[in-house]
What does this fold into?
Amino acid sequence: MSAAVFEPVVGRYLRLDLLGKPHRLYVEEAGQGIPLLCLHTAGSDSRQYRAVLNDPAILKDFRVIAFDLPWHGKSSPPSGWHEIEEYRLTSRDYADIVVGVADALGLDQPVAMGCSIGGRIVLHLALEHPDRFGAVIGLQSGGHVAPYYDMQWLHRPDVHGEVSAAVVSGLIGPNASDADRWETLWHYMQGGPGIFKGDLYFYKVDGDIRGRLREIDTQRCPVHLLTGEYDYSCTPEDTLAAAASIPGANAVIMPGIGHFPMSEDPEGFLTHLRPVLERIRAERRR
Amino acid sequence: MIETLAERVNGDARLVHRGRFVETTFLLEVGDEAWLVRIEEGRIAEIRRGPFVMPRWTFALRASAEAWGQFWSASPPPGFHDLFALIRFKRLSVEGDMHPFMANLFYFKGVLGSLRGQA
It folds into this structure.
């Protein structure tokens, strides 16, 4: 039996106003240095970043911060949530939440790293707030994903919410261990009713940024894209097309990995992430 | 190969448990060939091979023999490694009343995936 140990990760609750309402958000962090603000995928939470938050090589130079979006993980929905007919994430609300958290924490030129919906919003952030963020890293990041199944199945009383995990299970690549595969799916099984579906409104409808990718100025806000080979939601082709549209963007395709790199294959993902962070750190010193 | 579905599924106690509320018949189409698969309490109760005259089924899964062949290979390439990957790239069509399929999606991914490594 191994001895019990505390991880270097500290979790706290942050009280702040977002979108004109008081919120209580769950925030985890570890390390010190350049702020690295991590954004989870649709319908999941910040546990996806557990390996980044535990990597000594990264924690040496980066203050890694991951928070649960409102309605996700241990962050509550705003009071009065039960009177809302349907939760829906929009581009404007999502960007306001990320900037609001960065402001509340007083982060200086943070690096924003997001996956899937997070990988999409960092493109919006690079476009709309290029001087607020030091760089962005988009994981499974593309300009748009067209719906390929009927999303009504994700939220109806006669189908258990477990379906969200079943829908995304194939997005995990073959490199994933059983433990990390099912940890990743567990987060999906724990999502609140309709939340995954509401996040996908941003991903598949409202957040289409294809037409504006050319306007991103990577001199002001560098853009790095990392995408897993087995992702059929945001495919490698989608990421390469986005990179081709953003002058100065870098893209790397990660073999054997799927849609949840940081959670499904933490060690494999870190080998791709560390060089990107090292490059960001070197360019920041200049 | 499709005929081995019954022993593969019924021999997997965890999979049968997952599907313990499933009572349905679905059509499995592999290119020009078709099978009707009847499920009772998560167990494959009957598999009938076509051609059929006036078949009855609740939902149908239709894909080419090539697409299923890749899906059932031991290490399917990207895009062939999951039922939803096949759907995404329009290689698999799901028709009919999809409720039992979607309400028990982990189960049906397990049932179709149980043939993996035989192709």
User: Anything to note?
Assistant: Residues 78 and 236 of chain A are 36 Å apart (CA to CA). The first strand of chain A starts at residue 10 and ends at 18. Chain A has one domain: 10-285.
